[in-house]
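EI: anyone free to look at a 500-residue chain?
SC: sure, send it
EI:
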Amino acid sequence: MPRKHRRLASTCIGTVTAGLLATGAALASPDDERPRASAPDTAMGAYLDYGPSGVARIPSLSNWLGGKEIRVGHTYLPGDRWAGIEGNVGFLEDWAEWRQAKSDRIFVLNVPMQERNEGRVPDDEVARLIREGAEGRFDAHFRKLAERLVDLGVPDTVIVLGWEMNGQTYTHRCAPDPDNWKAYWRRIVTTMRSVPGQEFSFDFAPNRGTDAIGWTRCYPGDDVVDIIGMDSYDQGPGRTFDDHITQPYGLQHHVDFAKAHGKRISYPEWGLFRRGDNPEYVRRMLQWIEQQKPLYHTITDYCPHGVWQCKQNPLSAKAFRKALMPDVPGPVVPTPVVPTPVVPTPVVPTPVVPTPLVPTPVLPTPAVPTPQIPQIPTPQIPTPQIPTPQIPTPVPTPDRPLPKPSPLVPSPEAPAATPSPAESSPEAPVPSPVAPSPAAPSPVAPSPAVPSPVPSRPTPVNSTQWCVPLTFGDWLSKLVGKQSVCITVDWDRDSGFWPW
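SC: here you go
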């Protein structure tokens, strides 16, 4: 099987440039054959790199697969020193953050059982280390790892402990001392499960085939194993995929063994290796995964094993992408419209609840008495009877002879208007062309008989003004006082009342 030190070594192995990532998307073109994709309950992932770049590439792989969800994040702890096996590496934080982002994700962590794990340690040295592990010498290292994972918030990590133990590569291999190896496995699992808060699942994952030892001889027991996995690359034993299924300790043996022990299966590593670009192997492996419905599978995706980051396998990339891309929805077939019978809804009359009549209170308007203003009688002004003035006969004197009498103008019997006082004045001119002597007395016109008003002020004799008292009643007289109406009669010659 491929040596895993390539995953943690230089950037030329396991790390590719951004240009290579873009190239991978162009490798997938449709072909005519399409195997069924893995079951919905099988989580799919890929090993893309051990550190933060592996986490960062997951969305790009998902896009390349048409949006397929990548639910498995897979990485390895370095096995060169115990510090790395204890989890004192910064990249675990990146993977823990990715795992916590969604509840259905699975974080798979390969954990070496010995330091110098790829140091080509001889069998006798490996046997000695296995015995020391079985005696508890290395328990503290694994307790620290368990505490580290719990503190990071990934207590449900899937631990692929001592992977490919039936091979010849790693210092944690089983063949030098299978019995103590199983005891050592049990001790590690017991130590890590003793840490509070842990929920780890331990995956026992040998190589496909016999390799150095039949892997069933290394199985430590059902009580310390949760998942039985298998790493299967396109290499011997067997030349065809059917050989991979039927050979001793092959794919079928793996499925049967897990079923007999009541365990779920997994494929933590699979990919191309010895046969170059082999799309047939990719199609058959994906079909096998679909049939067996493992808990999860992750392809090893770097050269020469991969199909996305490795441009050496374009045909295999096509097969992989076509099998895992979500199905393209077909044409939408319209559903025939079946008319729904209209059932008339009975009209339920709504009961009319009479609204009670609330009488509006009528507030009486107070009657405000209107004051009765008495009628003021119009005073009747009597027409004065103007007597004919008696003109005295002048007495002749020696100095003045008697004037020749002028014809007298007879006085009218009913004057047209009341003469004004000026016309009845003694200074009025006499009808004679010669004025009488100043010594001659002027005739005095008698005052007309007018009812005497309540005297508010004296009225002069022969006055041209007449005043009549007004009576308004007791209450109004108190309010306005005693009043009278006075008129003035114009006796001027031009008034029309002048009788002469």
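EI: The radius of gyration is 70 Å.
SC: 👍
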